[in-house]
Each structure stands twice: as structure tokens, then as C-alpha cells.
Design brief:
This protein is mainly beta. The protein has three helices and 39 strands. The strands form eleven sheets. A four-stranded antiparallel β-sheet has the order 2-3-4-5. Strands 6-7-8-9 form a four-stranded antiparallel β-sheet, with no helix packed on it.
Length: 482
């Protein structure tokens, strides 16, 4: 009896809603956001934010109002134990996935809208025709201004009081993007005296190494500096407890996680497995965010896998990271609200361009929300993935690879080969504790043309693993985690 009462108490908030609303595995159909039928487009959940005693949602169509209709700014409030969805009259149809709390003025910025603590909405006319990827804190006048990042590389400055807008940069030019590449800037963040932005452009030309269109870049208020010419999707930072900046992207080998260490004023690189290869394209990464979901605890969504991420650094090491689950859901944003974890969605993206309907088997565009608890994610798909430190990459002799995550997976295997005409000796090092100290796990000689396969023993794990070759070569070092 005590056990049954405990279960009922834990479920009370959900039961209260379910008495008046249909709940299907955490989804409430009445809260679905649906676009008009023509033109057929996307209706993704661009951003979620709890503010002014309600949950705010901004949606995105494929390419501004010319590609869709019927979407915009929504709010959800709880009325007599029932969640109700309302579309705001100030709604603007567009492609919006930005949100920022401007603390100095107590205003939420979401899409092209600025919302005060009473829920009054204003619209920034100067940005509403821009596909908005991020809003960032201003470097020199944070009390009065913010930056807006557009998906086509527009970098704008807006006064949050007067709404005056000024274009500062075209980042396609500033970051020397390849001519003819498709811009797809996705995120940005300001911390430690720098603005960091990312562009996730990646097509077959990037895979075939004809060009490198992706970018991770930073700006100190004077000069733009390209950090990586690879596709990156998210930039995030904690505001305390060490406050690392974390940026996530990928290449042909694996997920890439760049971490800025404030004390050392430098970036370091880690590699993570890809739980799903279906994210490996410019338009297939909507939007892979990092968000705080419990007090001082963050979730990182990256290539079909959730990770828990810590805010802190000790000994200039990112200690708190482990996989939570694998998933197929497209999750453009997520947040905590009313004691729940809320996940956005993008459930149907037909996309009709002129007479061409590129997905005639998809129905009316729509996006639903998922309501649950953070701990529910542990019951989702078991963490699994694949990737490597090298994928037919040029390897320099005696130069260790980037560290690759090993912790939190069950079955683990390594696959090695190279193109050298003589044998290559590989050293496999493991960092068991996660403090940056690596120790030799195994040395392995791989003959010319040989394929080497190693199954790690059951129960064996370390935080990070890295590999070193004793000769220059092109090599592949591939890990499969089940």
C-alpha cells in the first residue's frame, strides 16, 4: 500500500493534466502547433522558454513567410489544472530558433519578439525578415544591447529599449566561407570577453573534402578568428563554477566537442560517438542544443544522443560528462517548466518549393511537445554509437589523437588500418579517471594492408581513449559501442 501511494504521489502532476487532456506517452495532442496547408513547409519548435508565468514557444517554417503560413509565437498556461495553448496576436511567420533572457532589462527575447515580465510583446522590425539562429549578450554594452545571428551569416546589433537595429557583419565574408556554399549558422554565445558563433554547412563536398564550409569562430570585438573549418551546431556556456564554453560539431570521423578553458585561455578538443549518422548533413541538425534542465545541471543533445554535462572544471578538465540515451526524435529545443522537462519537436516537414513537393508522403506540417521528467530519458534507447579519432586521415608520427569518449557504454570494439607500405605501431592510451593523465592500455603492430580488430573486455571502461602511430600514414581508428 505504501508503495502504491508513493507511485500516485509521484504521478499527481501528470494525472491532474490527464483528467482533462489526452496524454500519449508524454505528448498532449491539444498542444500541437500546426501550419497552413499551402505552401507545405516545416513547423518546427524553434525555441522554448518559461517566462511571465507561462511557457513561450516560437516556431519556424523552412524559409521565412514565403515558405509557409499559420505559425508564430505561442504561449501555454495552466488554467484550472489544464494546459491551454494560445497563439499570440503579435505572431510573425518566419524561421526563428533564438532565445535569450536579457537580465538587465528583465525581458525575454525569443524570435523577433521582446517580452516583459507581464507578458507584453514587442516585435523588432529590423530582424523579423532574418532567419534567426541565436541572440547573444553584447560585449561592450550588455545593459542596453544584444546581438542577433542570422542563418545566412547576418550579425546584427539591437537596442532592447528602442529596438534600433544595425547590421555589423556578413559572416560569410568575415569567415571566408567557400563561394557557392550554403550558409547555415546555428548558434552563438558570449562569454569570457568573446563572441563565439558556428555554421554547420556540410554536404557531399565536405564529405569528399573538396571544401570545408563549416565554421566555429570567435570575435573579441575587434577581429574575427576562425577556430575550426568544420560544421558546428551549438555553442553554450555556464555562468559560474568554472564556466567552460562548449561547442559541438562533427566531421567524417565523429562528433567534435570543443571546450574553452578560461584559466588557460585556450580551446581543447574531444571526440564523441555518433549515435545516428542521419544528422550528417547541413539541414538535418535542427538544432542539437545544450540547456540547463535541473539546477546547475545541463543536458547536451548531439547526433541522436543525450549527455549530461557539468558546469564545472577542475584541473582544467571537463569531468562531468556521460551519455544518457539514444533517440530518433528531432528536438530543436528543450527546457524545464512546471516541474517537467519539455522537449520541442518537428514532426512533419513536407517542404514544397514552387511546383516541386520533395516529400509527397508527409502530411500537414506540425510540431508537438513532449512532457516528462529528466530522469525519464534514462528509459529511452540505450546509449550506443560509432565513430573514430581518424577516418582515412593523415596522421603524424608520435602525435596523439584527440581524446575519444569511452565512459558510459557497454560493449566496445576498436578497428584499425592504415596505408603505409611498412608496419605501423599503434599505442592505445586510456584516461581512466578523467583527469587528463593517460596510461598505455595496449601496443599493437598493424602490418601493411592488415585490418586489426579488438574487443575490449566486458566491464572494461575508461573516461577517454586516444591512439598514437609511430609513422606518418593515412589511418582509420574506429570505435563501435553497443
Amino acid at each position: 500500500m505504501k508503495k502504491l501511494i508513493g507511485i500516485l504521489i509521484c504521478c499527481l502532476p501528470f494525472l491532474c493534466f490527464s483528467q482533462q487532456q489526452t496524454v500519449v506517452s508524454g505528448v498532449i495532442p491539444e498542444l500541437t502547433m500546426v501550419s497552413d496547408h499551402s505552401p507545405r513547409t516545416e513547423t518546427g519548435t524553434g525555441a522554448l522558454f518559461p517566462w511571465a508565468n507561462r511557457l513561450w514557444i516560437i516556431t519556424y517554417v523552412a524559409h521565412l513567410e514565403r515558405s509557409g503560413a499559420g505559425t508564430g509565437l505561442y504561449e501555454i498556461s495552466v488554467v484550472n489544472g489544464k494546459m491551454e495553448l494560445h497563439k499570440r496576436p503579435e505572431s510573425v511567420v518566419g524561421t526563428y530558433a533564438n532565445r535569450l533572457l536579457h537580465g538587465a532589462s528583465d525581458q525575454l527575447i525569443i524570435g523577433p519578439h521582446i517580452i516583459d515580465v507581464n507578458g507584453n510583446v514587442r516585435t523588432v522590425e529590423g530582424v523579423k525578415k532574418t532567419r534567426l539562429a541565436a541572440t547573444l549578450t553584447h560585449l561592450t554594452d550588455p545593459d542596453n544591447k544584444v546581438y542577433f545571428l542570422g542563418m545566412e551569416g547576418e550579425f546584427l546589433e539591437v537596442n532592447v529599449h528602442t529596438l534600433e537595429t544595425k547590421k555589423l557583419f556578413d559572416l560569410m565574408d568575415e569567415l571566408n566561407e567557400p563561394k557557392g556554399s550554403k550558409p547555415h549558422f546555428k548558434s552563438g554565445f558570449t562569454r569570457h570577453g568573446r563572441v563565439v558563433v558556428c555554421n554547420n554547412s556540410y554536404t557531399d563536398k565536405d564529405y569528399d573534402r573538396e571544401w570545408s564550409a563549416g565554421r566555429l569562430a570567435e570575435w573579441d570585438g575587434r577581429t574575427w578568428k576562425v577556430l575550426e573549418e568544420k560544421p558546428f551546431t551549438e555553442v553554450w556556456s555556464a555562468g559560474s563554477f568554472g564556466a567552460p564554453i562548449i561547442a559541438t560539431g562533427w566531421d567524417n570521423a565523429s562528433v567534435i566537442m570543443k571546450v574553452f578553458l578560461p584559466k588557460l585561455q585556450k580551446w581543447i578538443t574531444y571526440r564523441l560517438p555518433k549515435s545516428s549518422r542521419s544528422f550528417d548533413e547541413t539541414s538535418n541538425t535542427e538544432w542539437l542544443r545544450i540547456r540547463e534542465v535541473e539546477t546547475e545541471r545541463a543536458l547536451m543533445d548531439c547526433h541522436g544522443m543525450f549527455y549530461e554535462i557539468g558546469f564545472h572544471l577542475y584541473g582544467n578538465q571537463l569531468w562531468a560528462i556521460r551519455p544518457v540515451c539514444s533517440h530518433l526524435r528531432v528536438i530543436p529545443d528543450f527546457c524545464s517548466w512546471q516541474g517537467m522537462l519539455v522537449l520541442g519537436g518537428d514532426q512533419a516537414s513536407p517542404l514544397k518549393w514552387n511546383p516541386l513537393d520533395i516529400n509527397p508522403l508527409a502530411g500537414q506540417p506540425q510540431a508537438g511537445l513532449w512532457f516528462g521528467k529528466t530522469d525519464d530519458l534514462w528509459s529511452w534507447g540505450k546509449p550506443s554509437g560509432e565513430g573514430g579519432v581518424w577516418n582515412n586521415d593523415a596522421v603524424s608520427a608520435n602525435q596523439p589523437s584527440d581524446p575519444y569518449l569511452m565512459y558510459g557504454f557497454d560493449k566496445k570494439s576498436l578497428h584499425l588500418w592504415h596505408d603505409n607500405s611498412s608496419s605501423v605501431n599503434f599505442t592505445i592510451d586510456a584516461d581512466v579517471v578523467g583527469d587528463g593523465n593517460f596510461h598505455t592500455y595496449r601496443k599493437q603492430t598493424v602490418a601493411p594492408g592488415e585490418y586489426f580488430h579488438h574487443e575490449f573486455p566486458d566491464g572494461y571502461s575508461a573516461r577517454w581513449v586516444r591512439i598514437t602511430a609511430d609513422k606518418d600514414c593515412k589511418a582509420t581508428a574506429w570505435f563501435v559501442y553497443d
